[in-house]
Amino acid sequence: MKKIAVLGAGLTGASAAASLVRQGHQVTVFDKGRAAGGRMSSKRTEQGYLDMGAQYFTARSDVFTQQVKQWLEAGLVELWRCKTALLSDDEGVISLTASEDKQQRFIGIPSMQSPVSALLQGIPLLTSCRIHKLDYQQQCWTLYAEDGQHYAGFDAVLVTVPPVQAQQLMTQSGLANIFDSVTDLLEPCWAVAVQAQSIPYGDAIFCQHPQLRFISHQQHKTGRSSCYILHFNAQFSALHLDEPAEFWFERSSQILRQELQVKGDIKTLVAHRWLYASQKDQMAPPGILAMPAQQLWAAGDWSYGGRVENAYLAGLQLAQAVHEYSDHTEAMR
Ligand SMILES: Cc1cc2nc3c(=O)[nH]c(=O)nc-3n(C[C@H](O)[C@H](O)[C@H](O)COP(=O)(O)OP(=O)(O)OC[C@H]3O[C@@H](n4cnc5c(N)ncnc54)[C@H](O)[C@@H]3O)c2cc1C
Known about the structure:
Blueprint: E1 3-7, H1 11-22, E2 26-30, E3 42-45, E4 48-51, H2 62-73, E5 77-79, E6 84-90, E7 93-98, E8 106-108, H3 114-119, E9 125-126, E10 131-137, E11 140-145, E12 150-154, E13 156-159, H4 163-173, E14 186-195, E15 204-208, E16 212-217, E17 228-232, H5 234-239, H6 245-259, E18 267-279, E19 289-291, E20 296-298, H7 308-332
Parallel strand pairs: 1-2, 1-13, 2-9, 6-15, 13-20
Antiparallel strand pairs: 3-4, 5-8, 6-7, 10-11, 11-12, 14-17, 14-18, 15-16, 16-17, 19-20
Helix pairs in contact: 1-7
Bound molecules: flavin-adenine dinucleotide.
């Protein structure tokens, strides 16, 4: 049995931790956020949850399909019965058309982080705990948190935080920078929640638009506040990265009124900036990064192409890497 620290309680960290515990290891998970979930977090309001990050997930691999089946049976996820549509901009002419497809899309209930929390059930999780330095001495890792606490005696560390944050951690720790080539992998996204009259088509509106990439209506999602979530595309989000919430409220209201012909009151609720949201299509995913001799392993959704499913698979791959390396070193003795 090894004592293992997992940095990050998103789906990658949760999937790795659950798998390692099943293998008999002693695992502690650390996250800087107030709860588990990472980019699958939903914001709690009196009217219900707002999914500010991932809106849904798909299951393509056999392994993840099996896991989703278990979550469905346990009532942790449901099929999102959404109508899909396409918002396109043809040289300034905006059109919204229904575009039904056969893709099954799943959501966590009552919030996106439900399956993440379920994986972490019974596993020690320290939240509001930002790890800012790692130290490796005599085959043991010590983790230093920003609040002055430290956690010692780990045989292995799994890093599942986004690459830029991982690189900062390695620099602060004086460790080799294994993340140098992957810091450009994740792009930003501003997400805005608004209450507005219904848009004619669609709960899941894919956007080929100069500013937006996705609009989601929460009305058919159990446990959610019935509102719209607008996701601005990476290019527009990056261009206006430091604009305040008011800028994003104004932009959202204008698009809804002028381009989608929404009438009546528009109530802006929340604007959230994701610095590292989703994968750049153009870049090849790198797989797991590692310092095997020190037992430091790193992966995330970005290791296998982004998205929720790849985060889950990355977690399993991390657990497998620890396992195989332990077997290998045992055999060498
Ligand atoms: C706006 C948006 C929309 C999306 N839409 C979809 C979608 O519709 N479908 C889909 O499949 N995917 C979608 N995604 C992507 C999906 O959310 C991610 O692929 C997945 O959640 C990534 O999980 P992860 O565990 O790899 O990373 P994360 O969820 O980012 O987890 C990393 C964790 O590390 C923690 N952390 C960071 N630094 C530290 C530190 N120093 N110390 C301690 N903890 C730290 C963070 O708090 C975080 O909880 C979307 C993402 C965003 C942001």
